[in-house]
Design a protein that fits this description.
The complex is a heterodimer. Chain A is mainly β. Helix content of chain A is about 15%, strand content about 40%. Chain A is built from 3 helices and 16 strands. In chain A, strands 1, 2, 5, 6, 10, 13, 14 and 16 form an 8-stranded antiparallel sheet that branches. By secondary structure, chain B is mostly beta strands. Chain B contains 6 helices and 31 strands. In chain B, the strands form 8 sheets. In chain B, strands 18, 19, 20, 22, 26, 27, 28 and 31 form an 8-stranded antiparallel sheet that branches. Chain B has a 7-stranded antiparallel sheet with strand order 21-17-23-24-25-30-29, with no helix packed on it. The longest helix of chain B has 23 residues. Classes of the chains: A mainly beta, B mainly beta.
Amino acid sequence: MGNIMQQKSLKSLSVRSRSPLQRAGLATAIGLTLVSVCRAENVTIPVPNGDFETAGNSGSIGGSGPLGLVGPNTSASPLAGGPWSAATWGILGLVSPPVITINSNGASDGYCRISGLVGLKLLNLPLFNTHAVVSQTLTNQAEPFVVYTLEADVDRSTVLSASLLAEDGVGIGLTVNGTEVASSLTSTGNFLSVQLLSSTTYRITLKYATGEVPPAGSLGIRLFTGEGSGLLHTGVLQDVKFDNVRLTAFKLEA
Amino acid sequence: MFVKSLPSRPRRYYQRGTGFADVFLTVAVMSATCGVALQQVSGVRRGTEELNRNEAVKMLNNSLAAYLDNGGSIPAGASGDTVLSRMKKSAAEVTEGTFVGVKGPFVDARLKTSGSPQTNQPRIVWDSGKQKFAVASEGAGWSRVYYDDAEGLQDHGTETRKYLHQFASESCWVWDYSDAGTGQRGPLRVGVADPSVGQLPLLDDPVPLGPPVINPSSGVFSHHDFPLSLTITNGNVPNSSEVLYQINGGAWQVWQGGQEPLEKSLTTTVTAYAQAREMNGYTDSDPVTETYISYFMRGQGAGVFMTQTGESQFLYDLTQNGTNLSWGKTESAGQSVSSLELLPGSVFEAGEGESFELGKLRYTNGVTRAGTNAKTATVRLDLSLSVPATGTLSVDLPVRMMNTIHYPWTAENEHSDFLWVPQYTSLSQTITILDRQFAVSILAQADSAVVEGTEIKVPIGEGVSADVTLIATVTALD
C-alpha cells in the first residue's frame, strides 16, 4: 500500500501526466518564484585579490628587528604588488609589532595572516594590544539607498566563541573615503552576523546601509586585529588568518 | 332694468329725450360709482410705504382695467414704465367738456418703482401679450413698488382719452345723437346664448371670477422634493371659466386638470387666472402667482496634480491630463511604479447640510528603486458647477507620501507605504445661491486611516491600492 501511494505521488510530479490547467498553474508558480527571486538583486563588487591567491601579491611586514630586538612599527602601501596595504604597531617599543603575511599558497587556499599578537595587562586589567591593519580602497563609490555586505572568513587557530572573537579586537570594517563607516566590533542586530564554519573558523558578515545622501568617496575594506577595548585574552603570540573577502551591494526597494 | 322702466313714461316726454332728473341722476350715479371705484382700484394703504409684490400687481391690473374702461389706451410695444406713466395722467382739458368717465389719474401719483432685480429674483413685469402686470422671475421689471411723496408732487401731464360715450357738444341734451357708439338707449352688450354653457341669471354687470388656487403654495423646498406636483383648482361655477396658467413666464396654457410635474430649479413661478368663457356673464379673475424656491447646487468634482517633490533621485511621470502622478525607477522584473491618481466624483446635487463625493485619491504601492520616489504633491481640486451658475471653484490639497524602504531583513507586511492627507479642507470662495451664501468643506476619509494632527495617515500595503474619499459638505453661512 505504501509503495502504491509512493508511486502515485511520484506520478503526480510527472509533467506529462498533468492536465493543461495543472501545467498552467505550475508554470505560473514557477514564474512567480522566478520573479520573486529576480526582485532581490545582490550585485557583487569586485574585491581584487579578495581570496589572497594572486601570486604577485605575496609578501610580509612587521615582526622582530635584527638579532631578535624589538622591531619598529611598519607600514606598506601597497604590500608587495598590492592591492592590499598593511600597517603594524608594537607596544611602546617594548613589544615588536605583529607580522602581516599575505601568502598565495600556490594560488590555492591563499590567506592573510597576522601573527605575533600580544596583549598586556596591568593588575589584571587590559592595557595594550599589538595592532595590525590590512586594507584596500576600491574604485566603487558609495551610492544612496544601498545595503553593502562585507564578508570575510576569520581563523583564530583556536576554538573561540563569536563574542570572544570580538573581544579580542579582531574584525573587519567598511570604509568610505578612508573613514570607517561600519565595523564588526560595533555593529549589531541585522547589520552583523558571525557564523561558525569549522571549529576555529568563523565567517563574519557585516552590513552597512546608506541613506538618501551617502558619504562621498570610494568604498574601502579593513581587516584588523588589536582594536577595540578588549584584550587578547588567550595570551601572547596568537595568529589570525583572514580569507575570502567579498563585498556585495543590494539596491534597496521602496 | 333701467331701460325697461323708461317706456312707461308719456310718449311726448320720451320723444324729447331724457329729462333733467334723468340726467342729474345719471351723472350723480356715475360720479359716485367712479369715485368709489377709484378708491377701490387704488387700494392703497397709505400708512405703508412699500407694497407687497402680489398686492401691487393686483392693484396695478385693477387700475389698468379701470383706466382702459375710461378711455385710456396702451400703445403697442409699451413698457411697464409707460403703462404706469399713462395711468398717472389726467384727461386733457379739451375733452373735459364732453368726456364721460374718470378724468383724473388711475393710480396714486406717489407710486414709484425701482428696477433691475437680481437674476432669478421675483419681479413685477409688464406682459405686453396679455396686457397685464404679473410676477415673474426673469425679464425687465421692477423689484419693488413704493410710495414717494416727492413723486406725488410731480406734474404727470394729461392725455386725450376717447370714450364710447361723450356728453353733448352740439345738442342741448345730454348726448349728441350723431355720436359714434350707442347714442340710443339700450343695452350695450347683448348676450348670446350658448347651449353648452350653464344658464345664468341675467345680471346687470358681469360677475368677476374668483382666482384659481395653486397648490403647493409659495415657499422654500428641498431639491429632493422636485419634481413638485402642481395642481390648480378652479372654484368658480362649473363651465363658467377655464384656468390658464404659465410657468416661469412661459406660454399660457389651459389647465387640463390632474397634476403636472414642476422640474427642479432654483426658482419656479406659476401664475394662473380664471378666464371667463362668456364675457357677458363673467370677467376674468385676478391672476394668482406662487413661487417655489430651492437652494441647491449641481456640479462635478475633478482636479489635477500641480506640484510634486521627491527624493534625491526623484523620477516621476504625470499622465492622464495631470490626474495620474506615478513615480519611481524600476530596474528588474517584479518591480512596478507607485502612483497617486485622482478619480473624479459623479455629477452631484446638494443642498444645505448635504454631502457629496468630490472625488477619490487612489494610492498604488509599487516596488521601486529606493531614492526615486515622491515625497509630496499638491492636488488642485476643482468643483465645476452648473447650478447656481456655471463656474469652477478650486482648492489646493497638499499631500505627503512615505515610500517605505524594503531592507533585506524586513518582512513583506512591513513594506506598507503611507499617505497623509489633510483631514479638513475648505474652499476659500463662497457660493451664492439666490440670496444666500454657502460654503463647501472637504473631509478626507479612508479605511484603516488614523488621525495625526490635522492629517489622516493611510497605510497602503505592498503591491495594493488604497482610496482616500474626499467628501464635500455644503454649509449655509447665514
